[in-house]
Amino acid sequence: MQTICELLGIEYPVLAFSHCRDVVAAVSKAGGMGVLGAVTYTPEELDIELRWIEDQIGDKPYGVDLLIPASIGGLGDLDPSVLKDINVNDLLPEPQRRFLDDLLDRYGVPKLAEELDRSDRPGLGGLVLPTTLADVAFEHPIKLIASALGPPPAKLVTAAHEHGVLVAALAGTKEHALRQREAGVDIIVAQGTEAGGHTGEIGTMVLVPEVVKAVAPLPVLAAGGIASGRQMAAAMALGAQGVWTGSVWLTTEEAETHPVVKQKLLEASSRDTVRSKSRTGKPARQLRSAWTDAWESPESPGTLPMPLQPLLVEEAVQRIDRAAAAGNEGAKELANYFVGQVVGSLDSIKPARQVMAEMVEEYVETVADLAGALSEE
Ligand SMILES: Cc1cc2nc3c(=O)[nH]c(=O)nc-3n(C[C@H](O)[C@H](O)[C@H](O)COP(=O)(O)O)c2cc1C
Questions:
Q1: To test the ligand 1 pocket, which listed residue (17, 247, 274) has its Cβ within 8 A of the most ligand atoms?
Q2: Conformational region of residue 222, where left means phi above 0, alpha means psi within -120 to 50, and beta covers everything else
């Protein structure tokens, strides 16, 4: 059977999820595989980003990741003809809107300059569907398409295979993984609760061997809490064929992480993250801040389901990020971002190439040490 490196055409079994094209290119150039998180792009922007990556990496492989929610409270089946007639403001309940306004006032976060204010936006016609982004991605020589938040639609799997693209999907439980396999997924990413972003409740240590056993012979990548060669060796010992990483790239030189957040990440301990619905409406691990505390507080009206919560907070997050960058103290307290528990070990800014090299070197040393410990007995 092919190894994951043979399957993907990479040198080291390290995959890097990032929203930043520079990180994706750097990891693919360094012998791993960069996977671009595409969910925030318009189709035109995604096309530009993918072209740029290809210019940088030549014929090295790379991938694209889409969030395709299996369920999306309140918006039916994501039919574009329905969406264009929906006014966002009509969907957002008064208590949540008032709570958010009060929160930003309390922390002294100024409004956006007029040209950025989208409070009078007409409808959801501009909402980009993940499947539209997938169509753009398939026009490029991607090697892998990944999806999270439920099994990928059959249409996407078929299209991927027609284009010679492998399909990976994230799973937080054995049951999710089995559903992904049924949907025709080629590679399962078993993602433990330690991970940054949307995550379940089972730890990587328990989840990975469970999923490996359940979906065999499908290859499994381990995700959640992997930022070093030792952690990579542990993941491989659990039966994973490779690792899928996210948080470790946020503090690389190439990452466009907000400078205030980057500094907070460098200072954070492994206790400083929380699974919160406050950004997306589904539990996602992120840095704990005044923002997450406020949404968890007794005064909170509760979060809205996806995709209403992201629509509610989108502009607020922009306001916070802009004000924090300008030195506003309240905004700095609120600022946060998705990150996993492994944030506690991210304490300096390094080039992505160096992160890769150190991870692989420590992995090789660790495996050799373990083999040596056995043979000395
Ligand atoms: C900032 C950030 C954003 C993320 N966004 C997504 C996403 O859009 N789609 C996705 O499949 N996974 C997303 N994830 C999860 C990663 O794909 C990956 O599974 C996770 O980061 C692995 O755990 P780690 O953070 O401990 O390395 C995100 C992770 C982070 C840190």
A1: 17
A2: beta
Quote the pLDDT of residue 121.
46
Q: How far apart are CA 290 and CA 263, in angstroms?
A: 16
Measured from the Cα of 19, ligand 1's closest atom is 3
The protein residue whose alpha carbon is closest to atom 14 in ligand 1 is 197
Domain-embedded: residue 374: no
298 and 193 co-located in one domain: no
Distances (CA, A) of 93 to 99, 308, 372: 10, 10, 62
Of 251, 266, 296, the residue that ends a domain is 251
Average confidence (pLDDT) per 10 residues, the chain, 377 residues:
95 98 98 95 94 98 86 48 69 95 97 63 53 92 94 92 97 97 97 97 98 98 98 98 98 97 98 98 97 98 93 94 97 98 98 98 97 76
Give the pLDDT confidence score for residue 74 in this predicted structure: 40
Note whether 165 and 261 are same-domain residues.
no
Q: Kindly state whether residues 174 and 272 are assigned to the same domain.
A: no
Asked if residue 12 and residue 138 are part of one domain, the reply reads: yes
Residue 147 placed within a domain: yes
Q: What pLDDT, on the 0 to 100 scale, is given for residue 125?
A: 45
Give the full edge-to-edge strand order of the sheet including 284-287.
Answer: 197-198, 284-287, 273-276
Tell me: do 115 and 134 sit in the same domain: no
As for how many domains the chain has, the answer is 2
Angle at 140 between CA 135 and CA 141, to 5 degrees: 130
Residue carrying the six token digits 């619905």: 277
Give the single-character DSSP code of 258.
Answer: -
Provide the domain limits for residue 244: 4-73+127-251
User: Would you state the pLDDT for residue 267?
Assistant: 98
Binding site membership of 63 for ligand 1 (Cβ less than 6 Å): no
